[in-house]
Amino acid sequence: MTSLPHRLVQALDRFNAAHPWDHNAHYHRWILRRLPHRFGSALDVGSGTGDLVRLLAARADEVHGVDSDPVVVSRARALTPEPTAASFTVADALTGLPAGPHDVITCVATLHHLPFAEALDTFRRHLTPGGTLVVVGLFRPQTATDHLLGAAAVLPNAAIGWLKNRGRNAAPPNSMTARTRPAGMSFSDVTAAARTLLPGARLRRRLFWRYTLTWRRP
To answer: Could you say which of 1.10.10.60, 1.10.287.990, 3.40.50.150, 3.10.450.50 is the CATH number of the domain covering 25-139+182-216?
Structure first.
């Protein structure tokens, strides 16, 4: 997260465990604002229990959610009402994606689990010309800016957790099914690699220990 004092990190972890909220779902509406009002085919890589897939399905002709965990995919199917434009597949994020091409590809808190360059190249090949890729990812704090942004997120993080749970202890939200693995790449490493693979990609550090990447295929 950040290089905060150890006792403060422990206290924050205890508070977050008692008042959990989905840091990834926090960016879903932001993702939708990056996309056309209507589009044909969409692909969500690492779709989890399908929250983002269901949002995309309201604006797409078809949406494919892909996740490697069969238990999570089963849960996503159970949570998705029929009829729907959404479908869910148990598959590897690099070798098992629906062929496409797709007008929209999204990937939230999943890219740091994959070989970075290979994953972005795979996404690029599955994207139709003029299509949009949107990534919300995690990075390893390295610079003073990274650590300051992480520290600045501590109080808003606690406040949102408190408000969403109305001050009560709560069970973890459905879409966060597993503890997120720490990221290995710094933001500067992510930026350099992404702009080499996806010329013109736009990247930005975000609150709550995330970054965003948007790219439109020429």
So the answer is: 3.40.50.150
